[in-house]
Amino acid sequence: MAAAVIALAATLAGCSSDPSAGNFVWLGMKDNVFTREVTRVAVGDTVTFTNNDAFAHTVTSKKDQAFEFASGEFTEEAFELTFDETGTFAYFCEIHPTMRATVNVT
User: What angle do CA 34, 38, 39 make, to 5 degrees?
Assistant: First the structure.
């Protein structure tokens, strides 16, 4: 992967940026879409979102108007999250709101 992996600050509910346990899942962003609409992972798995576009995207999840996680803008880099509890986490790009997907954690 040519892009650097960075752990961006995030406000998390059921997530952390410590990839010390679990499996790793890679998701990309290209041409204003996430590579998968639904991704299923287990508790403890780390998901890496890689921006393969030359322009900025975000990975943002809100529930009841509160942030579950938010990557902030990043270009040709990556954002990692380790999911520590079960749940369904819908996320989107704040810059391109039609970019939407979900992580289901079991």
Answer: 95
